[in-house]
Amino acid sequence: MNFKSVGWLLALLFAALASFVAATLAWIAGLGWVLGLMCAVWGTFLLAEFKRWERLRDMAWAANVGFGCSVIRWFDVPGEAASGLARWALLGAAALCLIFFAVLVPGLLGWAAGKLRPPPEPELPVEQPASPEALRRWGPRD
Question: What is the dihedral of CA 15, 72, 48, 26, to 10 degrees?
Answer without folding.
Answer: -70
